[in-house]
């Protein structure tokens, strides 16, 4: 007798849920396809920005769902705008910037497969974001994009913010407008970060300066990278009146070095950069001569020599002598090596054709050293000097390649402290003598070698 066949065993429900057919495996959302849309939405609501960023890389379907989720107004209000306003103290700034870096990475991954024109829509996520937070978001989002895509980003931002029109307004107006501060904060926070990759900084700086003529380029560069007053305004008059601290001219020097280091490309030439330097140092009036010297020192030996050599070829020997004296003094004050001013003097001497011209140049430098020392000694001895801050020329100015004196005196040094003015003046006088001694020692040592 043949036994009846046993009916096939039914799979247990738990096992059936774990086994997926080939068609199920090829489904777009996998296991998540079985979830109701409301439940899946609730899951996304409970994920952090970092979790969403990782989750968006699972599949195209999941990525599309997350893109739709983060594109809603409620999510952007809760996760983008409100997070910024929760920053109540300066201590929270680091945490806030890290959050917007994660936010930029999320949008970068979500839009990875989209064309550039569609990705640009996610750049304008909010108009009320802080500049620093938006800059962190934007830089993370476009990291790795090629120059053509970044160019489209610049055009898109310019159109959204009327950036070029606002820049034109400040370039055609008198210095000191409030809009200058807004333009500076936006460009420095969102686009131009001189402390980051030099290539990125050069790219954005070139796009900001390119539409304008040379004089306007110099003025815009001063607005973007020039010194600031204590109240946050651009230091137009400050740079003309008093010597500035080292840190106030660093950014401007970095920008000039960036442009000068890219002279091999067709965007910038050495002559253009030197012309910009000449224009900057007379904006809005001729700069204080010590600030000119400090800027040249910060720009490095190549730019400093090129500027001085250009003046030497144009016969401006007196101006070169006075700048060199201040460069030597700045090197002593800021603890720079005295060897490279000596090398610059040696290179400049080679530009003069005859021995008499070289002797005239050296004699002009020595006369400037003597005049400066005698003027300062007279001030120390008499105690008759004005209140100021540091060492600087008051009457001597540089303007359009000419050196002139407002009061008829060739060189006047003024030094005063807030308390012990005589001691400060004496200390400055000693510093000048030390700088002169070190310079001449290096000259003699070079000749002996």
TrEMBL record:
<dbReference type="InterPro" id="IPR038946">
    <property type="entry name" value="FBXO47"/>
</dbReference>
<protein>
    <recommendedName>
        <fullName>F-box domain-containing protein</fullName>
    </recommendedName>
</protein>
<dbReference type="InterPro" id="IPR036047">
    <property type="entry name" value="F-box-like_dom_sf"/>
</dbReference>
<feature type="domain" description="F-box">
    <location>
        <begin position="29"/>
        <end position="78"/>
    </location>
</feature>
<dbReference type="InterPro" id="IPR001810">
    <property type="entry name" value="F-box_dom"/>
</dbReference>
<dbReference type="Pfam" id="PF24467">
    <property type="entry name" value="ARM_FBXO47"/>
</dbReference>
<dbReference type="Pfam" id="PF00646">
    <property type="entry name" value="F-box"/>
</dbReference>
<dbReference type="InterPro" id="IPR056622">
    <property type="entry name" value="ARM_FBXO47"/>
</dbReference>
